[in-house]
Write a structure and sequence with these properties.
Length: about 130
């Protein structure tokens, strides 16, 4: 089953992908409006025959925004949207990139995409 992982951000969305147990980075979306993200994600899901979406659910003020966005995404795509707690996924992403000596500029460019991989991998690990 093809699953899309999402690290939600107000201006950047990190994306990851899996068809089994191996999660791969899928890219990042830079957006100005959440409606842009809905359009792009709907297109990505259709083109790639995605069957399920896993989105990181933060705590705090952003939680309600993510829940509302996810409901809209679920309606637009007709796909199940699963929440995965994402506490510290961005911090963990940066730490992993530092461990492998990724340059600062690359870390900044790829932080959300790596966080999306971490979110999706945690979801998969919990399913077994």
């Amino acid at each position: 089953m093809k699953i899309l992982g999402i690290d939600f951000g107000l201006t950047n969305f990190g994306l990851s992908f899996t068809e089994g147990r191996l999660v791969e980075p899928f890219g990042q979306l830079k957006i100005k409006l959440l409606s842009e993200a809905l359009d792009q994600l709907e297109s990505i899901c259709r083109k790639n025959k995605i069957k399920k979406i896993v989105i990181g659910l933060p705590g705090g003020k952003l939680k309600n925004t993510v829940v509302g966005f996810s409901r809209q995404l679920e309606q637009r795509t007709s796909l199940p949207v699963i929440f995965q707690p994402e506490e510290f996924s961005s911090k963990e992403a940066v730490e992993k990139m530092v461990e492998i000596n990724k340059p600062l500029k690359k870390r900044q460019q790829q932080e959300h995409m790596v966080a999306a991989c971490i979110i999706l991998q945690k979801y998969l690990d919990e399913q077994t």
